[in-house]
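Protocol step 4 of 5: obtain the predicted structure for the target chain.
Materials: sequence only (see below). No template structures provided, no constraints applied. The aim of this step is simply to have a reference model before the mutagenesis design in step 5. Sequence pasted as it appears in the construct record:
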Amino acid sequence: MNKAYLAITMKVPAKDRVKAGAVYSKYRQPFLATVPGAQSKELLLREEDVQVLHGFDSRASAESYLKSALFGNDVVRELKPYLSAEPEVRVYERQ
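Step 4 output (structure tokens):
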């Protein structure tokens, strides 16, 4: 069984991390409940950055989410004011 991970790494200043975390919390359940193939979503807070790791049933599901209205119109729009650089987006696949 293939499994894919979507890792989004963001530079968020310390003063904005609570606000960025609130965006994560707001969209975690809708992501898990409505995105086809979604299996998990974890927030990783590191000193140098913030990373959200999404688990999917396949690479195609992960790539489809990146094109979805939930991602583009909601999550990205709400996070944008807190980012100090463009996020790094990577999809990994485990076979």
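Step 4 remarks: Strands lie at 3-10, 38-45, 50-56, 88-94. The two ends are 6 Å apart (CA to CA).
Proceed to step 5.
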